[in-house]
Design brief:
The chain has helices at 8-21, 27-39, 43-48, 56-70, 75-79, 100-110, 129-137, 150-162, 196-199, 222-231, 252-259; strands at residues 81-84, 87-90, 116-123, 140-147, 168-171, 184-189, 235-244, 264-269, 275-281. With 284 residues, it is α/β, with parallel strands linked by helices. Bound molecules: glutamine (GLN). Glutamine binds at residues 99, 190-194, 206, 214, 244.
C-alpha cells in the first residue's frame, strides 16, 4: 500500500477483495467494521470522510486487523464489540460471540415475562447478552444469571455495568448457585449444544471461541438434559423454559421436556428456517 494515497473508499474496495479471497463471510461489511475500528470512528463516518486520506499509523493498524481476520479471528473479537438486540455488548475470548438467532430466544422469553414483578433466569449467560437484554426490556423485573465460567461472568459484569443494569450474577453449574426458593416466570438459556463430532467440522472461526460454550457432548444434549431436568421445579406454575438447541434436536428436545414434566413443548425456527429453540411450559 506504500506511496499511494489511501482513502476509506479505496481501502474498503481493496479490503473487500482481500477478505473475499480469504473466504471471509460478508467481506464488505467486515472491511468497513475493521476500518472504522482502525480509525476509531463509527461506520457511518467512513462514508462522510470517504475521500479523506488515511494516515500511515491507521493504515498499519488496518492491515494488521485484515490479516488477523483473514487468518480466522472473528470480527467481534477484533473490534471487541457485537450488537445484540440493538445494543452494543463488549465481547472477547472469555465468552461466545452473541448470534442473531439468540435474539429470538430473548423475544420468546419476553413474551412470558410480565411487565412488572416478573422474575427471570438466564443460564449459561456467557457475555450476559440474554439476561442483560431481559433486564433492560423489563426494567421492573428481577433477573438472575449464572455461568460456570468465572471469566465469562467477569465479562457479563462489565456488560451489565456498561449498559447500566442491575443483574444478579452467580457463578456455578446451571442451577447450583441459584437460590433454591426463587421461582421464575421464565428461564432462558443458550447452553453449549454442538455435538462433539460436529465441532471438529465447524468453521475455523468457531475454534477461537471457548469450547466450554459450544461442546454439548456426544449428542449435543449433555448440558441441556441436566438443565431441563431441573428446570420445571424452578418455574412458577405455567412458567416457560426457552432453550436454544442444535437443529438435530428438533424432535429429541421437545420429547425430553415432556418426559421431564413439562405441560407442552414446541420447537421454533430461526431466520434461516432451522429449528433453533424450544419453548416449554410448566404445568399450571
Ligand atoms: N450457535 C452456535 C453455533 O452453532 C452454538 C452455540 C451454542 O452451542 N450454544 O455456532
Amino acid at each position: 500500500m506504500a506511496a499511494e494515497i489511501w482513502t476509506p473508499l479505496k481501502l474498503i474496495a481493496w479490503a473487500q477483495g482481500y477478505l473475499a479471497r480469504a473466504g471471509v463471510d460478508a467481506p464488505r461489511l467486515t472491511a468497513e467494521l475493521l476500518l472504522a475500528h482502525a480509525l476509531g470512528c463509527v461506520r457511518l463516518r467512513l462514508y462522510l470522510d470517504f475521500d479523506k486520506p488515511v494516515a500511515e499509523p491507521e493504515l498499519a493498524r488496518y492491515r494488521l486487523l485484515l490479516k488477523r481476520r483473514a487468518d480466522g479471528e472473528p470480527t467481534a473479537y477484533l473490534v471487541g464489540v457485537k450488537e445484540f438486540y440493538g445494543r452494543d455488548f463488549r465481547i472477547d475470548v472469555r465468552a461466545l460471540i452473541p448470534r442473531p438467532e439468540t435474539e429470538l430466544v430473548v423475544e420468546a422469553a419476553l413474551a412470558h415475562l410480565p411487565a412488572t414483578g416478573g422474575v427471570a433466569l438466564d443460564l449459561c449467560t456467557g457475555s450476559g447478552c440474554i439476561g442483560i437484554t431481559l433486564a433492560l426490556e423489563r426494567p421492573c423485573s428481577r433477573v438472575l444469571a449464572s455461568d460456570v465460567s468465572a471469566d465469562a461472568l467477569g465479562l457479563a459484569r462489565e456488560n451489565a455495568d456498561q449498559l447500566g443494569v442491575g443483574l444478579e450474577l452467580l457463578q456455578g453449574d446451571l442451577f447450583a448457585p441459584v437460590p433454591a426458593d426463587v421461582r421464575f416466570d421464565v428461564i432462558a438459556a443458550n447452553p453449549p449444544y454442538v455435538p462433539t463430532g460436529e465441532l471438529r467440522r465447524l468453521a475455523r472461526e468457531l475454534h477461537r471461541e471457548p469450547v466450554l460454550a459450544l461442546d454439548g457432548g456426544e449428542d449435543g444434549l449433555s448440558v441441556t438434559r441436566r438443565l431441563v431436568s431441573d428446570a420445571a421445579a424452578r418455574l412458577r406454575p405455567g412458567g416457560a423454559l426457552v432453550v436454544e438447541m442444535h437443529e438435530s434436536h428438533l424432535e429429541s428436545l421437545p420429547a425430553l421436556c415432556l418426559e421431564l414434566g413439562f405441560e407442552d413443548a414446541e420447537a421454533r425456527r430461526d431466520l434461516a428456517d432451522l429449528p433453533r429453540f424450544v419453548v416449554a411450559r410448566a404445568k399450571a
